[in-house]
């Protein structure tokens, strides 16, 4: 794990271009993300928010340009980058055939952790009593919480979260916001998209990257 | 917070997860097996019940049915993981992707390949396979079906993101299955004539080693394209 | 390698370069295929065993040898595209694939037509015909995989992986089919040994092989240029080109 100081550049996007089905979503987009940042990617539907997050996470390859992690292209240091990356996408990554506990256990072990207590972690996301329930039988919000429990046990610097508040109640959103602020203050960064207003993270600490819908 | 998971532990975690899910969804294990049995029973009905004819064509029928059953069952290999997002998490895991892919293919082979090998002698009886050939049949299936799973997984990984993957998949992977078919059936034929067939087995073993080494990389690269 | 490749990776340069090369390939193709075919079909001596029906080899052998070469070309282009992420190479691979498939189909068709007088049947499970059939399937797989993706950047990467997997498997498939077939015919052109063909037959054949290569090159260049334009429709230089074309 790398030690980072506040305002150190963690991630930099260099002239990213994304083309989907012959349509340019964004062109030569550049920005830096520092340790301690909470960055919101905003823009209308279809502007390419999810595409941008997936490019930063290394899941998609940009049409042109590159993403650098601590100054090195993420495709060249995939192992180190993945070690420090927590990505939470549209799809929660929860299997409905497994129980909440089995899901969390798998998700953490596949990320390399082996010293955790699933009962305690699930209690932190208000899933006490549902440990043995099949994820397929949980409500939409509980399903998302099962996935979000990963945020309770992680040492990843970079959190990339695509619509993390979907189906989460007001109290849950506030808890997540506190978690993001604590993470940023400890030298990490959070990159997220959301259509909901955040109550605790205000514009003083929130940085925004805006994407426009382009007609080409 | 420690990240003490070894490669073996990561491999076993994924293997156990896939086996556990399959046990909760038993239909997925039995359907390809039933398909295998049905295809084999159709042949005597199509070409007549004469034992000599059946003895002659038995190795080919069993192996072609095995190819088709393997392909059919492979189609779902990455589908569920793709649609619920766990595949993305695997691609972003700090563990080597080829290792995780290998665990998934192994789980798939245990669930579909092994039952197929176990039921094959029964079908061989129905087809009047020469009594000398049983050993060769089992040996070729044991060496050949993992190769089918590994090669097939490349095609599956390439088509997992597509809506109409099914027919395309057969076009992509059946040509790659040809060498396995040729050497496996010829080993069984040779055994039926009391000839040595260790040469064919050695070639099948070489294919297994080769695909064990190379296929996981191709599968990993294909998955990265499919999830793009 | 890297630098040199990149100077041609720019789509506009690739388009112009292929435009310059196209006439040369076309002229050579017409000259060589014309000479080879007329010489082979009209003037080459009649075979003492097969009569005139052997003359189909002047089409069959060039098509068969080029079917393999085109696959290699496609795989090399795909490899460059995948490893160095050069899109011009991906487009080249996409341009070659259908041509290779057609050439393979011609080789199969002429092979079958040759089989009728020679073996008395349209199709024999001869090793080379069978390998050619499998090669056609491999081509069709690459083409339909490319067609199945809506995003052509992804399509090229997926088809590229398949083409490379195919190239690794071709020798294995070829070997296994050869081994399987006992009806194998001894090959008629051998580079190392003395050829069993008379030179009057050999020269037009070699000219046609070379001519077919040029012809495939020319058609590939035409398709390549079309592919570049199709993939770069949103680029300014393509729009200017379209405007200039309209003004004509």
Give the proportion of residues in helices of chain A: 25-40%
Could you say how many structural domains of chain A there are in total?
2
Count of alpha and pi helical runs of chain A: 6
How do the strands of the widest beta sheet of chain A line up side by side? 6-7-8-3-9
Total count of helical runs of at least 4 residues of chain C: 8
Radius of gyration of chain C: 20 Å
Please give the largest β-sheet of chain A: 5 strands, parallel
CATH architecture assignment name of chain C: Up-down Bundle
End-to-end CA span of chain C: 40 Å
Mean pLDDT of chain A: 88
Rg of chain A, please?
Answer: 17 Å
Shape of chain C: globular
SS elements, strand count of chain C: 0
As for the CATH topology of chain C, it is: Four Helix Bundle (Hemerythrin (Met), subunit A)
Structural class by SSE content of chain C: mainly alpha
Quick one: overall form of chain A? globular
Strand-and-helix sequence of chain A, N→C?
EEEHEEHEHHHEHEE
CATH C-level category of the largest domain in chain A: Alpha Beta
Largest interface: A-B, 34 and 30 residues
Transmembrane segments (chain B): 29-48, 60-78, 99-124, 136-160, 167-188, 200-223
InterPro entries (chain B): Cyt_c_biogenesis_CcmB, Cyt_c_CcmB_bac
Pfam family, one (chain B): CcmB
Protein name (chain B): Heme exporter protein B
Your description of this structure?
- The complex is a heterotrimer of chains A (216), B (228) and C (248).
- With 216 residues, chain A is α/β, with parallel strands linked by helices.
- Chain A folds into two domains: 8-84 and 156-169 and 183-216, Rossmann fold; 93-155, no CATH class.
- Helices cover 27% and strands 26% of the residues of chain A.
- Chain A has six helices and nine strands; from the N terminus they run E-E-E-H-E-E-H-E-H-H-H-E-H-E-E.
- In chain A, strand 7 (158-162), helix 6 (170-185) and strand 8 form a beta-alpha-beta unit.
- The longest helix of chain A has 16 residues, at 170-185.
- Chain A is globular.
- The N and C termini of chain A lie far apart (43 Å).
- The model of chain A has no long low-confidence stretch (mean pLDDT 88).
- In chain B, helix 2 (27-47) runs antiparallel to helix 3 (51-74), helix 3 (51-74) runs parallel beside helix 7 and helix 3 (51-74) packs antiparallel against helix 8.
- The longest helix of chain B is centred in the middle third of the chain and has 30 residues, at 97-126.
- Chain C is mainly α.
- Chain C has a single domain, classed as Four Helix Bundle (Hemerythrin (Met), subunit A), CATH 1.20.120.
- Chain C contains eight helices and no strands.
- In chain C, helix 3 (57-83) packs antiparallel against helix 4 (87-119) and helix 4 packs antiparallel against helix 5.
- The longest helix of chain C is centred in the first third of the chain and has 33 residues, at 11-43.
- Chain C is globular, with a radius of gyration of 20 Å.
- Chain B binds chain C through residues 154-155, 158-159, 162, 164, 168, 171-172, 174-176, 178-179, 182-183, 186, 207, 214, 218, 221-222, 225-226, 228, and chain C through 82, 134, 137-138, 140-141, 144-145, 148-149, 151, 154, 157-158, 161-162, 164-166, 168-169, 172-173, 175-177, 179-180.
């Amino acid at each position: 794990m790398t030690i980072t100081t506040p305002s150190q550049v963690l991630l930099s996007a260099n002239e990213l271009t994304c083309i989907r089905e012959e349509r340019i979503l964004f062109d030569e987009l550049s920005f830096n993300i520092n340790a301690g940042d909470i960055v919101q990617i905003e823009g209308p539907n279809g502007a390419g928010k999810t595409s941008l997050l997936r490019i930063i996470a290394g899941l998609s390859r940009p049409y042109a340009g590159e993403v650098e992690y601590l100054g090195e292209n993420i495709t060249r240091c995939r192992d180190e980058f993945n070690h420090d990356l927590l990505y939470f996408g549209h799809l929660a990554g929860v299997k409905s055939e497994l129980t909440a506990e089995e899901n969390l256990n798998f998700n953490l072990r596949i990320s390399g952790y082996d010293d955790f207590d699933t009962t305690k972690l699930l209690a932190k996301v208000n899933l006490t009593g549902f440990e043995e329930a099949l994820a397929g039988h949980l409500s939409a919000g509980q399903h998302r919480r099962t996935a979000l429990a990963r945020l309770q046990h992680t040492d990843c610097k970079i959190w990339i979260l695509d619509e993390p508040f979907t189906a989460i109640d007001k109290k849950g959103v506030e808890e997540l916001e506190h978690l993001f602020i604590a993470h940023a203050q400890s030298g990490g960064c959070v990159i997220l998209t959301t259509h909901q207003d955040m109550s605790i993270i205000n514009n003083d600490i929130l940085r925004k990257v805006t994407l426009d819908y382009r007609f080409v | 917070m420690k990240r003490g998971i070894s490669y073996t532990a990561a491999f076993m975690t994924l293997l156990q997860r896939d086996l556990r899910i399959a046990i909760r969804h038993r239909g997925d294990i039995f359907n390809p097996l039933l398909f295998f049995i049905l295809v084999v029973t159709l042949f005597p009905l199509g070409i007549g019940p004469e034992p000599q004819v059946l003895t002659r064509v038995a190795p080919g029928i069993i192996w072609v049915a095995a190819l088709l059953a393997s392909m059919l069952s492979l189609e779902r290999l990455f589908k569920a993981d793709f649609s619920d997002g766990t595949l993305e998490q695997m691609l972003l895991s700090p563990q080597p992707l080829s290792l995780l892919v290998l665990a998934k293919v192994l789980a798939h082979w245990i669930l579909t390949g092994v039952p197929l090998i176990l039921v094959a002698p029964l079908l061989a009886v129905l087809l009047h396979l020469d009594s000398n050939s049983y050993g060769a049949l089992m040996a070729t299936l044991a060496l050949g079906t993992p190769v089918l799973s590994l090669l097939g997984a490349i095609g599956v990984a390439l088509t997992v993101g597509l809506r109409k993957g099914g027919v395309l998949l057969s076009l992509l992977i059946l040509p790659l299955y040809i060498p396995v078919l040729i050497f496996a059936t010829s080993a069984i034929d040779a055994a039926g004539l009391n000839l040595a067939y260790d040469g064919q087995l050695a070639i099948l073993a070489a294919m297994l080693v080769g695909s064990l080494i190379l296929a996981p990389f191709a599968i990993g690269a294909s998955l990265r394209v499919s999830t793009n | 390698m890297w630098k040199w490749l990149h100077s041609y990776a720019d789509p506009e340069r690739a388009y112009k370069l292929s435009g310059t090369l196209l006439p040369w390939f076309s002229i050579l193709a017409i000259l060589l295929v014309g000479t080879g075919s007329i010489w082979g079909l009209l003037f080459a001596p009649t075979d003492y065993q097969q009569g005139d029906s052997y003359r189909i080899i002047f089409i069959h052998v060039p098509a068969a040898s080029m079917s393999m070469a085109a696959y290699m070309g496609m795989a090399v282009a795909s490899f460059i595209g995948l490893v160095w992420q050069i899109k011009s190479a991906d487009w080249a691979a996409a341009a070659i694939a259908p041509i290779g498939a057609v050439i393979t189909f011609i080789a199969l068709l002429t092979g079958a037509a040759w089989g009728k007088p020679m073996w008395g049947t349209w199709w024999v499970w001869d090793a080379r015909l069978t390998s050619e059939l499998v090669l056609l399937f491999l081509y069709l797989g690459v083409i339909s995989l490319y067609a199945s993706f809506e995003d052509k950047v992804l399509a090229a990467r997926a088809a590229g992986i398949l083409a490379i997997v195919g190239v690794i498997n071709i020798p294995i498939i070829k070997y296994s089919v050869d081994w399987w077939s006992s009806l194998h015919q001894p090959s008629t052109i051998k580079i190392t040994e003395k050829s069993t063909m008379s030179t009057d037959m050999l020269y037009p054949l070699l000219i046609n092989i070379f001519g077919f290569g040029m012809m495939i090159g020319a058609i590939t260049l035409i398709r390549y240029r079309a592919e570049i334009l199709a993939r770069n429709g949103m680029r300014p230089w393509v729009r200017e080109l379209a405007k200039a074309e309209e003004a004509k």
